[in-house]
Prior knowledge:
Blueprint: H1 15-18, E1 23-25, H2 29-43, H3 50-69, E2 75-77, H4 78-90, E3 98-101, H5 105-113, E4 114-115, E5 120-122, E6 128-130, E7 134-135, E8 140-141, E9 146-150, E10 153-154, H6 155-162, H7 174-183, H8 185-193, E11 199-203, E12 208-211, E13 214-215, E14 225-226, E15 232-236, E16 242-247, E17 254-255, H9 260-274, E18 278-282, H10 291-299, E19 311-313, H11 326-334, H12 339-349, E20 364-369, H13 376-386, E21 391-394, E22 403-406, E23 414-416, E24 422-425, E25 429-432, E26 445-446, H14 451-456, H15 460-470
Parallel strand pairs: 14-17, 16-18, 18-20, 20-21, 21-26
Antiparallel strand pairs: 1-2, 3-24, 4-13, 5-6, 6-9, 7-8, 9-10, 9-11, 11-12, 15-16, 19-25, 22-25, 23-24
Helix pairs in contact: 2-3, 3-4, 10-13
Amino acid sequence: MNRHGLSLLILTILCTSVCAQRMLPFSAVPDMVDEVYETIRDHHPIGYEPAGRERLLAARTQVQDFMSSARFADSIALWDFTRLVSPLQEVTDCGHLILEPHFDSLMNVRVRENVFPLSLMRTDDGRFILLKGLRTTTDSLLPTTAIAAINGEELGPMIDNMAYFAGLNDVGNVSATQAAIARGMGLQYQRHYGLQASLTLTLTDGSRREILPTHRPWVDPKKKVTPIAETITFRYAEDGQTGILDINSFADRKFRDGNYYKFVKQVFDTLKQSGTRQLIIDLRDNTGGSSGRINYLYSFLSEGKFRFADRIILTGPAKALPGESAKDLKRRRSGAVSKHGRKVQRVLSKAMKPRKANLRFDGEVVVLINEMTFSASGMFARFVQGSGRGKLLGVTAGASAGTTFGGSNRKKRLFIGPNEEFELKVNNIALQLPYAIEGNVTPDIIVPITEDALREGRDEQLERALEEIRK
């Protein structure tokens, strides 16, 4: 069941390896395990059907058996707890289910504002290299420089430990989670080790470099107003015959100088008027967002009616509650018991019309994806691929090609631990995709990033997409 495998190793915590980490009293762990289990059972769609509840209960039993068999110290690191309870997340196949290290609100903001521009990628041989150049206190490191450790701790095991219960891993694709953590290593490190005044990097030749943070004021993304170009851009390739639409988020963001829907319409008007027959849509690093935004975009590509989802479940356990009527029980079994839930069902499963022929783009389409392509962006990519409307190129996404999740039925944030060491994020809507298949959204054409291209400053995935679309 547990894809990582809970081996019966002794979890006695050694000061030499975790003395700087944030710690959790082990006496609090049993109650925290129960709270995580009960929250998932009562609010996540896995609790909708008896078979799902049975799988979740089996995962809980696995965790409890491990706790009774292993020997623990008086306190454990936060990532040891997430590793312990990870079967409860993995059994759901849901990468939206996240147990995230948490400080108090003020410290959370300080950690987000204390920015280390440290972006890494794991190579096929297990090394970690810089995706971007990096300025240190003594010199500058070029892209592809190999980093072996941070503050004396080996990178590989550290990132693997941080990846438990950390999201972006639909259907158990933990490699996507590990890739996301490596790319945002500065923030992830501070979530586990606290605010840092500097980080010491150990290179593979044994030499060390110190990097300092920059301060970047943090604004809640829901309240942030940005230039539209930070989210969506359009340009032509050098050949003048291929349009490139880059969308790094489908979130309902407000822009100070534009409107998402007007921008997308203008793009397709431009393609139509110019007679452009080739379009590349870049969804790399796009972790999702609004159903309305991907529906609108796809309406310019689809040749017929389409649905956002074929089946929607919005409830917890599908069983009668005290005093519940037969009508409510029937509604619960259909996937939504409340009036609002049934409305959401109707909206998300409604058949939508494509654009009229004179507005629709009927040329060639290639969609770029990577590990970070998730949730709504993964759904859009699968729409294009499953319908045969275009091809996907890049590397396998963290998103599922069968069922994804969304929504939330909690008005208040849920914290776990005696000192609120974690925040548990639970989505309560399960969405079965059109053209659903098993596994993750996988490109038709696999093109990984190579060290040679990074050194030369080339985007080989985009280069390959241009080659393919010209065929």
